[in-house]
Design goal:
Low-confidence stretches: none
Shape: elongated
Strand order of the largest sheet: 3-9-8-7-4-5-6
Strand content: 15-25%
Mean pLDDT: 89
Protein name: Sugar-specific transcriptional regulator TrmB
Number of domains: 2
Helix content: 40-55%
CATH class of the largest domain: Alpha Beta
Largest sheet: 7 strands, mixed
InterPro entries: TrmB-like, Tscrpt_reg_TrmB_N, WH-like_DNA-bd_sf, WH_DNA-bd_sf
Pfam family, one: TrmB
Order of helices and strands: HHHHEEHEHEHEEEEEH
Distance between the termini: 49 Å
CATH topology of the largest domain: Endonuclease, Chain A
Length: 234
């Protein structure tokens, strides 16, 4: 993801993000200078600069000419995150409690959304996790796995990549790099494919039959790994 797209995730438009990047590179600029450097029309540049100020991404510098200075990117992002956390607390308080899951099958698409779901499943874990995945998803989920280990949860990982995690049980076997399987507390499962960006797709469910089926498959895979390991050592 490029810088412009990342800034858009923090509420800036494409033009605002482009001008913000220019401000961080060049320092304080007037509307005329920002328009000239970015190729954006002067009227649009002035509008974007005003929005950057309103969104907390720039300051107005009163000099011989009106200029705009960027808020440091870490400060801007931290302020946005802090505000979103405040809004999350308010919404959690104001909105009604969600009814329990109906137990259906939910399709989650896109690498980012799939990984978000996996993280949230891990954060909600109370006792045990079984995770089957290749190297990159494991790397992204490692902070959550480490937090679970510190909390005393059981963590079992099956992977084909070189991977060690102190406090976890790690089994090594050949794995397709685009597959992920996750069971949390024997109550929810996420399984499917990653690595195809927006085309990636996973199935999420709390249906007991699917959870039990996937749990049995993982246990059988672990038994086979142990059997092969014992045969090789013998």
């Amino acid at each position: 993801m490029e810088s412009v797209e990342m800034l858009m995730q923090f509420g800036l438009t494409r033009q605002e993000a482009l001008i913000y990047i220019t401000l961080t590179a060049e320092g304080a600029l007037s509307g005329y200078e920002a328009a000239k450097l970015t190729g954006i029309s002067r009227s649009n540049a002035y509008g974007a600069l005003a929005e950057l100020v309103a969104k907390g991404a720039a300051y107005v510098v009163e000099d011989t000419a009106l200029r705009y200075s960027p808020v440091p990117v870490r400060e801007f992002c931290r302020n946005k995150i802090h505000r979103m956390q405040e809004l999350m607390k308010a919404l959690s308080k104001d909105l009604p409690e969600r009814q329990s899951d109906s137990g259906g099958y939910v399709t989650i698409t896109g690498d980012r959304h799939i990984m978000d779901k996996a993280r949230n499943m891990l954060r909600a874990c109370e006792a045990r996790v079984y995770l089957s995945a290749a190297g990159e998803p494991l790397r992204q989920l490692q902070p959550e796995l480490e937090a679970l280990i510190r909390a005393g949860c059981k963590v079992v990982v099956i992977t084909g990549a070189p991977f060690e995690l102190v406090g976890a049980t790690v089994h090594h076997a050949e794995k397709r790099p685009d597959q992920i399987g996750l069971i949390v507390d024997s109550s929810s499962v996420l399984t499917g494919e990653l690595g195809q960006k927006e085309a990636s797709s996973c199935l999420y469910s709390k249906r007991k039959n699917l959870v039990d089926l996937f749990k049995t498959a993982l246990k059988n895979e672990i038994s086979l790994i142990e059997l092969r390991k014992g045969t090789a050592e013998g």
